[in-house]
Write a structure and sequence with these properties.
It contains 14 helices and twelve strands. The chain is of the alpha/beta class. The radius of gyration is 20 Å and the shape is globular. The N terminus is likely disordered. It has a seven-stranded mixed sheet, sandwiched between helices. It has a five-stranded mixed sheet with strand order 8-7-9-6-10, with helices on both faces. Strand 7, helix 6 and strand 8 form a beta-alpha-beta unit.
């Protein structure tokens, strides 16, 4: 299927929608400072820094950061510079932390990354690498929805107005020929904006007939009797689309390139380890989730959720560009200037040292 027919992520047109889209993944707004792994004896500081502050969400699509934290990969590459972690529940708080200098580098979804870039007029952040693709599904009550055509007239949950899954569903519904008001969610399909934390309860109570949601929420619904009706990956060329990127404060990138390079090197090596040791990596991610939130995921949720996510260093820049173009076409975004949103210079350097090829920035690179 051509990229032009794929569901697209949304980015807001008004200040209100920008903030909503930044809330993106619908996980709340609290951050948790995790501290760092033990520093090896005799290690030297990187770029003379006492610490590098790394942010991520307590979510499986941020598995690179979860595993890199748990296994000490970031700390190893940073030497005597302490890797400190802040765990966020939502895009706005992470973007605010990045802009204020409370964190230096973060793992984040495409909507808050692009909105953070656009809102600051390209002055506050850069996307410097990829992390994950996939992990988004339409899960339905099989007694009420037996086919894609049956979705018409039903109540479908998405995480939040204007977030990436919300607009992906709205765009898909439009492609089916259905009309839905994007603000109210009313139309041929009713879109119910529901936080991922409460969607499983709404699904179990029967107040929604299905949900277009990321992992592990999708697998939670399946564990409660839901059925995967559609995997969003199937709608994209090569079944790949960006779900998590790595961003950095521009000031930090300019002043401390060696530290940024060390974090990127750790990310690349973490992804390589994840793909070579999938069972161990899944367990490590779950251990870190438990450490961050106090609760691990059960196997019937963790296992299928982990399998649906592909960890990659590729930023999949072309898919981000396509997402923005279709958001504009849908009237949800004024045409943005994305030139300079990517700076893959250090990622390319790390990949070259690892004997791996560079990735394309889709013409959106800095400089």
């Amino acid at each position: 299927m051509p990229a032009t027919s794929a569901p697209r992520r949304a980015f807001a047109v008004t200040a209100t929608l920008v903030l909503l889209a930044l809330a993106g993944c619908g996980y709340g707004s609290q951050a948790k400072d995790e501290g760092a792994a033990d520093i090896a004896a005799g290690a030297r500081k990187t770029d003379g820094l006492d610490s590098v502050r790394i942010g991520y969400f307590g979510n499986l699509t941020h598995g690179t950061a979860l595993v890199g934290n748990r296994k000490g990969f970031f700390q190893k590459e940073l030497g005597a510079t302490e890797a400190r972690y802040a765990v966020f529940n939502a895009g706005p708080s992470e973007i605010e932390a990045l802009n204020s200098g409370s964190i230096d580098i973060g793992w984040i979804g495409p909507s808050p990354a692009i909105n953070g870039y656009v809102k600051s007029r390209g002055k506050n952040l850069r996307i410097i690498g990829g992390s994950a693709s996939g992990g988004v599904k339409l899960v339905v009550n099989p007694d009420r929805v037996k086919s894609l055509e049956d979705v018409e007239g039903k109540r479908i949950a998405t995480p939040q107005l204007g977030n990436t899954q919300d607009v992906a569903f709205l765009n898909w519904a439009s492609e089916q020929g259905w009309t839905v008001d994007p603000q109210s969610g009313k139309g041929d399909v009713t879109v119910v904006r529901s936080d991922n934390k409460v969607t499983p309860d709404a699904f179990a109570a029967g107040s929604v007939d299905g949900a277009w949601v990321p992992e592990p929420t999708a697998s939670r619904l399946v564990a409660e009797g839901g059925k995967v009706l559609l995997d969003e990956a199937s709608l994209w060329p090569d079944e790949e689309f960006v779900i998590t990127s790595i961003v950095v404060r521009q000031e930090f990138l300019e002043k401390h390139p060696k530290a940024v390079e060390a974090v990127l090197r750790a990310s690349v090596r973490t992804n390589r380890w994840i793909n070579a040791h999938p069972d161990e990596a899944r367990a490590a991610a779950n251990e870190q989730l438990a450490a961050d939130s106090g609760k691990a995921l059960p196997a019937d949720v963790l296992d299928p959720a982990w399998k649906s996510i592909r960890f990659t260093d590729d930023p999949l820049a072309a898919t981000l560009e396509a997402q923005a173009e279709h958001a504009v076409a849908a009237g949800l975004l004024e045409k943005p200037d994305l030139n300079g949103v990517y700076d893959l210079t250090l990622l390319d350097k790390v990949l070259a040292a690892e004997g791996a090829p560079a990735f394309d920035d889709a013409g959106l690179g800095a400089g």
